[in-house]
Amino acid sequence: MSKQSDYQLVRALGHGAFGTTFLVSEKATGKECAWKRITIANEHDRQMAQSEVEMLQRVRGEFLVSFLGSFEENLEFFILMEYCDQGDLRKFLNDLKERNETISEDA
């Protein structure tokens, strides 16, 4: 089972209503992944985090971020996911729009 000390924090990637996402590197392998950290203030927060994990475990696909694992430590819940170095889809589309570029459906 993973624990917080297994990972080296690289940098923050973003934050949302339920947590902050970081780029981390697994100390043993050097593998980079995205790590969402959710503070657990009450049982409702824990249930929301667990629901997100259950959803990530159920949905899999070639074009979806892979779920790598999760753990809870010191009233924080951590969700490990595949790191996408080009950012998320919204960022990708906004970058295309700013450059007045399009992409074919076959890309």
Give an account of the 3D structure.
The protein is α+β, with helices and mostly antiparallel strands. It has one domain: Phosphorylase Kinase, domain 1 (2-Layer Sandwich). It is 24% helix and 36% strand. The protein has helices spanning 43-58, 89-98; strands spanning 7-15, 20-26, 32-39, 67-73, 76-82. A 5-stranded antiparallel β-sheet has the order 1-2-3-5-4, with helices on one face. β2 (20-26) and β3 form a beta hairpin. The longest helix has 16 residues, at 43-58. It is globular, with a radius of gyration of 16 Å. 14% of the residues are buried. The mean pLDDT is 91.
Q: What's the overall geometry?
A: globular
* Fourth-tier CATH superfamily name: Phosphorylase Kinase, domain 1
Helix content: 10-25%
What about the largest sheet?
Answer: 5 strands, antiparallel
Report the strand count.
5
Rg on CA atoms, Å: 16 Å
Please tell me the total number of domains.
1
The CATH topology label is: Phosphorylase Kinase, domain 1
User: How many helices does DSSP assign?
Assistant: 2
| Average pLDDT figure | 91
Relative strand content: 35-45%
Oligomer: single chain
Structural class of the secondary elements? alpha+beta
| SSE arrangement, N to C | EEEHEEH
**Order of strands in the sheet with most strands:** 1-2-3-5-4
CATH architecture: 2-Layer Sandwich
Extract low-pLDDT stretches. Answer: none
End-to-end gap: 37 Å
Tell me the name of the CATH class: Alpha Beta
InterPro entries: Kinase-like_dom_sf, NEK_Ser/Thr_kinase_NIMA, Prot_kinase_dom
Keywords: ATP-binding, Kinase, Nucleotide-binding, Serine/threonine-protein kinase, Transferase
Domain Protein kinase: 7-107
GO molecular function: ATP binding; protein serine/threonine kinase activity
